[in-house]
Amino acid sequence: xxxxxxxxxxxxxxxxxxxxxxxxxxxxxxxxxxxxxxxxxxxxxxxxxxxxxxxxxxxxxxxxxxxxxxxxxxxxxxxxxxxxxxxxxxxxxxxxxxxxxxxxxxxxxxxxxxxxxxxxxxxxxxxxxxxxxxxxxxxxxxxx
Amino acid sequence: xxxxxxxxxxxxxxxxxxxxxxxxxxxxxxxxxxxxxxxxxxxxxxxxxxxxxxxxxxxxxxxxxxxxxxxxxxxxxxxxxxxxxxxxxxxxxxxxxxxxxxxxxxxxxxxxxxxxxxxxxxxxxxxxxxxxxxxxxxxxxxxx
DNA sequence: ACCTAGAATGGATTCATTCCATAAAACACT
DNA sequence: AGTGTTTTATGGAATGAATCCATTCTAGGT
Lengths: 144, 144
Ligand SMILES: [Mn+2]
Ligand SMILES: [Mn+2]
Ligand SMILES: [Zn+2]
Ligand SMILES: [Zn+2]
Known about the structure:
2 copies of one chain form a homodimer. Chain A has helices at 13-19, 26-37, 43-54, 59-71, and strands spanning 41-42, 75-78, 86-89, 96-100, 106-109, 128-139. With 144 residues, chain A is an alpha+beta fold. Chains A and B meet through strand 4 and strand 6 of A and strand 4 and strand 6 of B. The structure holds a DNA duplex (30 and 30 nucleotides).
């Protein structure tokens, strides 16, 4: 049995925050924890979860935290059409998403073409492309 | 010189509407015309253009028209993250989009992998996938 | 323990879009 | 052409998600 009470695990919310040069605050730690519990959660879910954990947090605080985390590269924000923004811990693996048109369920999909795929297109209009984002639309088994 | 005054060209707005089983109304014809003038226009642009052409239309009318056209398959609606919805005549060619992170400029990109690409993923979680939507993010030459 | 830049609060505000009840117009049928 | 039924347009209010702002609070450096 390993004692982790006083451990400073690099993947702990507070360590992540410090490593990113962000101040460690209760809302930030709680939001990071909430993000682990709920895959691809929207702000509402994160607000509710954070509030449950802390007793109270302002809605604005959670939005601010999310913005700080996204800006710091700790969190990825995705905005599937027709849905409020979703958030997930940033894994930097450039994975894609499978979205159910009916219930909005979202699943991760590994990038078939390698790490950062499809970055070259036939005619790029002179654009400097840095990311190819793929959304697979369909029906999940429950909705089919 | 070809006289087209009394022609019933299949690609004329009114013909398109009738073919789709939709009533031909001034706002619908005007919105279809506006869609030809502005690639990937948002609702605001279409409202302004339609209003200029007709003298006046309600905002709601344009939204209703757009919904009817999208439902009928005549128009495609895309929702790039961070931008209001954009609309384009539906070409059914499953092309993708290049989006400038700075100015929001959008360009069409042919699908490199064929008509309906990437529809197979490693693990599809039992989903029935009907579309793979790709957004290439980057900077346009003007913004770079 | 103290200071100060940065973060949280509560409240108002924006933006894109949708909802609703009423008035107007399109098309089918005399 | 006139009538009737259904669909569409109008004006105005309402919504959901997110942002702005002024004030109060707090984390972390000295
Ligand atoms: Mn994901
Ligand atoms: Mn396009
Ligand atoms: Zn589903
Ligand atoms: Zn640009």
